[in-house]
Design goal:
The chain is an all-alpha fold. 70% of the residues lie in helices and 0% in strands. It is built from 8 helices and no strands. Helix 1 packs parallel to helix 7, helix 4 crosses helix 6 and helix 6 runs antiparallel to helix 7. The longest helix has 30 residues. The two termini are 15 Å apart.
Length: 195
């Protein structure tokens, strides 16, 4: 059982990276990855929200929606839980790190509509994960998203000193780098995979 959970955890970080394999959560990934400190803060926030919402959503789905035959309310329920937790995270970040709150700007409340977070909750239903599998998958997916945004922020900080063609500056070169990073993460595909 532990080995199975470890495989799910590692696969969700590397081979099934939510940002670089499924390309979910790309808006904040591109916008926030200009600075390492901000990217780290956003990565922590997304990981926290992703893990907590997937866990809560699994409990609501398995113990309330399925027994009552109202699985069709899953989308609404999942989004309400995500929105509530993002509000809590936003208040905590505003209270304890005003720099991070200001630097994240509009993208902090937009975690609510980050499709990566909703995607993890929907993948857990599709894959019929148990509670511990959901915890391993959601934590791994959050850490994988954080790894991807930190790698992107590190590369973009080095690009400040590079001679990037004028037409590719900004989002253009960022998307090219994301594609190359995705190819790099595909190299792990033969090592670990989710079933």
């Amino acid at each position: 059982m532990i080995t199975h959970l470890l495989i799910i955890f590692c696969a969700s970080i590397l081979t099934n990276n939510i940002a670089l394999t499924y390309f979910l959560g790309m808006c904040p990934f591109i916008a926030i990855s200009k600075d390492l400190r901000t990217a780290f803060g956003m990565g922590i926030a997304v990981t926290f929200v992703m893990t907590l919402t997937a866990t809560i959503n699994w409990c609501l789905y398995e113990y309330i929606l399925v027994p009552n035959g109202v699985e069709y309310l899953a989308y609404v329920t999942f989004i309400l839980v995500i929105a509530a937790l993002v509000q809590i995270v936003e208040m905590i970040i505003e209270r304890f790190s005003s720099f991070l709150y200001v630097s994240m700007g509009i993208f902090l409340p937009l975690i609510t509509v980050n499709c990566a977070i909703l995607g993890v909750s929907l993948f857990m239903v599709i894959r019929n994960y148990s509670f511990f599998e959901v915890v391993a998958y959601s934590l791994g997916s959050g850490l994988g998203w954080m790894l991807a945004i930190l790698a992107m922020a590190g590369i973009r900080s080095k690009l400040r000193f590079a001679d990037v063609p004028r037409g590719l500056e900004g989002a253009g070169i960022t998307l090219i780098i994301a594609g190359i990073m995705a190819l790099g993460f595909m190299g792990f595909a033969g090592i670990i995979s989710l079933q």
